[in-house]
Amino acid sequence: MRRLNPSTLTEPVEPDWNAALDRASDLLGEGVLIHAPDGSIVTSNAAARAILGLTTDQLHGHAPSDPGWHTVDADGRPLAPDSYPRAVAQRTGTAQRDVLVGLHHPDGDVRWLSVTAVPMGEGPDGVVVRFADVTAQQVFQRDLTHQAQRMADVEEIALLGTWEFELRTQRLRLSDGMYRLLGHTPDSLPPERATFEQFVLTEDRAKVFASLQETVAAGLDFNLVHRIRRADGSVGTFRVRGRPQVDDGGNVIRVVGTTQDITEPARMERDLARARDQLRGVLDAVTEHAIVATNPWGIISDMNRGAELMFGYTVEEMIGRTPGVWHDRDEVFTRARELGIPPSLDVFTMNARLHAPETREWTFVRKDGERRRMVMTITVQRDDAGKVIGYISVARDITEPHRAEAARRRAEARFRTAFDHAPIGVGLVDLSTGSPGRLLDANRALALLVGREEDELDGMALSTLVHPEDAPALQDRLCDLANQRLPSFQSEVRLMHRDGQFVWALLGGAADVDPDAADESTAVLQILDITERKRFEGQLQYLADHDPLTGMFNRRRFEEELERALAHAERYRVPGALMVVDLDGLKAVNDTLGHAVGDELIERVARLLRHSLRTSDVVARLGGDEFGVLLPQMSGDDAVQVAEKLLEELRDGGVVVTANRHGRVTASIGITTWEGPPAHAPHELLIQADLAMYAAKEAGRDRYAVHDPAEHSEHEPLGTAWLDRLRDALDVEDGFALHAQPIVPLTADDPEGLERFELLVRMRAEDGSLVPPGTFLTLAERYDLVQQLDRWVLGRALDLIRRREAAGRPVSLTVNLSGRTVNDPTLARDVELLLRDGPIREGALTVEVTETEAIVNIDRARVLARDLRALGCRFALDDFGAGFASFYYLKHLAFDLLKIDGEFIRQLPITPTDRLVVRAVVDIAKAMGTQTCAEFVGDDETVELLRDLGVDYGQGFHLGRPRPIEELLHEGAPGSP
């Protein structure tokens, strides 16, 4: 380039300079200005004008110091005119190279220029300025510097350090933050000396390196917590996260990671360059909430793992889409109509933008189509200027709580319906006060039970509705509920009706006690009217304790009274006496005048006994024609006087007269006594009185005998002999014999084509004669031998059934069981064992119990009936109708045959009432699928009436007398009458 002479500058040679600049600009692509010595611009190239945004007229002849030029230095401070690179080069004659200058461009932005100013000639004659636009590089460098600084700040604040480990070179590079965490500097721990061992405490190395090798080899991220010894010797706990990096071939070439000091509780946000990954980790950890970020237009920019789980879409599937994918369309349109706006993003965000974050329930539809319920809060995000830059939605799945609440409301509605319309009384009672029991609510049934209106019961104390004698115990139970000593209770109480009468009720209560809200604890009471049941229980108790014919105590109750009397005698050392009274001649009355006359005579004797004794004495019918008398606090001599009086009364009153005959009974009385504490148990005293009674009979009857141990040889042998004979008979094979009485079908041939018999037991005497059961069954029951006898009969019956079935002539046999056997819980098991040895056809064996035996323990009888029927046996109830509670058994016992008591059969042709009773029994039995059998059938007229009434079977001397079982089984069944 030609040197310029300042003296010639007033006459510019424009064409030469332009040509030179054009060629230079073609080569350099940079802006070029030539300044005269006074600083004015002589010429410029096109690149300069383009970079500066000025025209030729705005440049030529002007100097950068003129108004309109605004420059700053690298730090952003205004640049003085004498500090321009051109001015410095002009002044010093030294080239200024690559000076960074900021120039305010006419478009308002700052353009960063890299300026080189070179003086021309000596003097100098001028300055050539070359510059390039480095704005982009400057911004990048500034951002890079800023980012590095932010990284350093984050590491320092978050107690964080970063590292990179090259597997090929085994070189470990540490960040400044990492040096700071370790307590080292690059000088104290140069990169070439840094190793992983320095990261891990010696004791932790084996475990840590094993985990590192496993995860790195698999190309997996790792997240470890271990201890590090710092340069100062202190030990800290650090969390190390790392991620292997692989080449194109999938080989791990390096591992990069972070180490964070978690020794101190405060943790700051990590490296801002990794902020997105860290935020992702935090959001993904909140799996119970769905967090969704959108831009201002509702486009999803991010969402957490909880959102993926909740909605069923992955992040990749939803980025760039809107949440409308999972919203219920109809619900969105409905909400838009409520707000009066189109169905757009504003349906969700309008309130959040105008007011505060909005929380609202929505229905959402998962990707798999399942509809669920969520509660969602939308928050608007704004920049510093208040401009909306996006939205954050936080949603929680409330489907299960929502369903639970719906179920609770339904349950509450059902409870309310059940409460209000329950057929029994129901009340809600407050348990929160010191004296619980105030009624909070009561249903109509409870109000009717106590004769009041429902609203009248609100707030009333339950104790005011309960009989004063029952109220304290009920209050105690309520306190037990309130104090959680009982979860529930059941009590029988008497409720007071408005009219002053009381109503028996079964009151059950269950607590609803909230330990966190004790002032809201309640109890639900269910109140069942059991007045009728109590009345019936009283009747049953009466029947269980009393003889149905005479109204006296029965044997069971008499034995209880005897035990109480003996306990009293032992405690207070008082005397007493026990008598057994057995009627002489009653069998003759029954045989000649009939059982009805005999029963009348027994009732008369019972009245005589009651009227002849003290009110403190206990008299009972022990069975058949035998009575027991308990004389507490009575000496032996006085007991003898009582016996003499009873004998005299019976001689006069033990007479019955009919139209053409009369009958008489006397008594044999056995007496045993005790002075002070008894030496014998109750059953032993009964045996002594029994033996004395037998002694009186042997002595001629119509007399008494006193049991005296010193004179037992005179009276005891007879009773002892019978007991020994009974025991001997049970010990030998043929000690007893079976007779059988036919059970005959009345309406047609037997539907099953069977011969039917009832088995009757006899005892063989020493001379080979047969002893009737009335002689030994009482002793068998009294001495607990009857269970053994019943089992013998059952075994023989099953053996006979098997033999007949094997011969092709099936038979049905009925066995009577005593009350003691019925109450034996092992009976069903024993029958099962007998059947296991040789099964029989179902229904071939019928087990029969009397009504009076069932009433003693109806629960035991119910269980026995169930168990025997399950084994294939039939169950029959004998003497049906003998007690007024007979129809109770139809409800509570399952049986196959009703045997109508002979009392209703003997006079059936002449007694309309008997016919009505029999017809009622037959109708009920048929409705229940049960057969009927009439006992004591005595003539053809009775047979015809029974047929007309629909009775299935008949039994009696007219239809067939008892005969040895062997004879009947060989002859076959008798023909129907």
Number of strands: 39
Contiguous uncertain segments of 5+ residues: 1-14, 265-273, 711-718, 972-977
Strand content: 25-35%
Distance between the termini: 161 Å
Description of the structure:
The structure is a single chain. This protein is of the alpha+beta class and 977 residues long. Helix content is 39%, strand content 26%. The protein has 33 helices and 39 strands. Strands 29, 30, 31, 32, 33, 34, 35, 36, 37, 38 and 39 form an eleven-stranded mixed beta sheet that branches. Strand 1 (31-35) and strand 2 (41-44) form a beta hairpin. Helix 19 (586-593) packs antiparallel against helix 20, helix 22 crosses helix 23 (712-731) and helix 25 (786-806) packs parallel to helix 27 (827-837). It is rod-shaped and about 180 Å long. It starts with 13 loop residues before the first helix and ends in a 6-residue tail after the last helix. Residues 1-14, 265-273, 711-718 and 972-977 have low confidence and may be disordered.
